Amino acid sequence: MRRKAGMTKRIILANPRGFCAGVDRAIQSVQTILNTAAPREDDLPPVYVRRQIVHNRHVVDELAEQGAVFVDELSEIPQAAAQAGIPVVFSAHGVSPQVVREANELGMSVVDASCPLVSKVHREVLRFVREGYEIVYIGHRGHDEAVGVIGESPEHVHLIEHERDVDDLDFSPDQKLVLLSQTTLSVDETTGTIAALQRRFPWIELPPSSDICYATSNRQAAVKLVAEQADAMVIVGSANSSNSVRLMEVANEALGGRGTAHRVDDADELDSAWFEGVSAVGVSSGASVPDELVQGVIDALQRLGFTEVDTVETIEENMHFVLPAALRKRG
């Protein structure tokens, strides 16, 4: 779409965008510990965090600058830290029972900041296994959330990523079968895979609709509406953020060849060539992205001549999760 002479170039903001309740709770968990930690005379930090608290490098870097120490595995935490009661925070994506057992064996003071929606799926795995089900789990191989859920019962949870993976599964009709999925996968994203599963295993039971993350669905719906009015889109989010990458894919699909969607970590990654001849740029962000990063993109676009800012709002989110029990007495 070419811009007509004299036409005002505009930015169309998707709303909702950015932080979801689970991400906000996880970040606030680490922030609360940092804000309330007493000064120490030893060299130990105020808090350790296993893996990225959320999948956004800016959030992680900011918390690290304030004193949080991020580790990939619990074995990297010195024994002296456990003995001193230094809190260890589990990320929003959840962990497997093996990690919980390891923390207990090491005597660590754990703060579990897993998203309550993810924890719900963990509980469902345990319930279905007790009732004799095999579980087909749609998720991204190696993603922290998928690793944690599968870890609840590796022998009974069968991971598939794509529709083509259904052919690799083999269950007899007398085997009780249920489907679960990664919370950050939307209905649209899994429709083809679910249809293939139902053709192959007509008796498979579908997951509760409440397992679908509200934030994922809301952000994708908003992006689709914005794309109808835009001829290019920018999605702010990190490359390892499943929901941010999917937002970019949804935006490209919704643009329908009229333009291209780009994912950036921040405004520094914008390329002015993307916006040549563009009159309207849609902007959204993944569920782990601070709004100041979106504002930075808006500022950069305004310097490129996109002076008008409109917002497309699909739904007002009012979801809130309380802090983990271990932190409610702090503050």
From TrEMBL:
Protein name: 4-hydroxy-3-methylbut-2-enyl diphosphate reductase
Residues binding dimethylallyl diphosphate: 55, 93, 143, 241-243, 288
Residues reported to bind isopentenyl diphosphate: 55, 93, 143, 241-243, 288
Pathway: Isoprenoid biosynthesis; isopentenyl diphosphate biosynthesis via DXP pathway; isopentenyl diphosphate from 1-deoxy-D-xylulose 5-phosphate: step 6/6; Isoprenoid biosynthesis; dimethylallyl diphosphate biosynthesis; dimethylallyl diphosphate from (2E)-4-hydroxy-3-methylbutenyl diphosphate: step 1/1
Organism ancestry: Bacteria, Bacillati, Actinomycetota, Actinomycetes, Bifidobacteriales
NCBIfam families tied to this protein: ispH_lytB, PRK01045.1-3
UniProt keyword annotations, A-Z: 4Fe-4S, Iron, Iron-sulfur, Isoprene biosynthesis, Metal-binding, Oxidoreductase
Cofactor note: Binds 1 [4Fe-4S] cluster per subunit.
